[in-house]
Write a structure and sequence with these properties.
Elements: H1 3-9, H2 11-24, E1 26-32, E2 38-44, E3 46-48, E4 51-57, H3 61-68, E5 71-75, E6 87-96, H4 100-114, E7 123-137, E8 143-148, E9 152-155
Antiparallel strand pairs: 1-2, 1-5, 3-4, 4-7, 5-6, 6-7, 7-8, 8-9
Helix pairs in contact: 1-2
Length: 163
């Protein structure tokens, strides 16, 4: 499900993710290496053209992973050991964005955010089709929520809830 549709289907987790990812400007991106093992890489994230977008250096290992196997996971960067902002995880399928309008929108957003944008065609651009999402926070305001297309949004029993 494209980002704009996910925002409509699960506004609670989508708004937490958008706010957190925009503030952090980087996420941890999990991909599948050619040997089947996991790869975890930092990656900048941007929202535009109804998509959540990940720009990558041309022929980077994580980009090659996604071209070969589009499964990925996106995880927020913990702020501290106690991580009061909680953990946001999105899983789904990477889409190799070749549409010139989407690529232009991405470059415009990146230029606005960091005053730089890569030249065409020297970068990879992927969006995420969201299949599942979750938010988990420990501490004095515990929260545990999950969404997937088949089951929708639901709150889970949190291990810190103490009931």
């Amino acid at each position: 499900m494209r980002w704009d549709a996910f925002e409509g289907a699960c506004p609670k987790i989508a708004s937490l993710a958008r706010e957190r990812f925009a503030a952090d400007e980087v996420v941890m991106l999990g991909t599948v290496r050619a040997d089947g093992g996991p790869r975890l890489s930092p990656c900048e994230v941007d929202f535009t053209a109804g998509r959540i977008l990940f720009g990558m250096m041309w022929r980077s290992r994580k980009a090659l992973d996604l071209l070969r196997d589009p499964r990925l996971v996106v995880h927020s960067v913990p702020q501290t050991r106690m991580n009061p902002g909680g953990d946001i995880k999105l899983t789904g399928i990477a889409v190799d964005e070749q549409d010139p309008d989407v690529r232009t929108a991405y470059r415009t957003e990146l230029k606005r955010r960091i005053d730089w944008a890569p030249d065409e065609p020297n970068f990879h651009l992927f969006s995420l089709d969201v299949e599942s999402a979750s938010f988990l926070r420990y501490g004095h305001e515990p929260a545990a929520t999950r969404w997937d297309a088949a089951n929708g949004f639901h709150e889970l029993h949190h291990p810190d809830a103490g009931d």
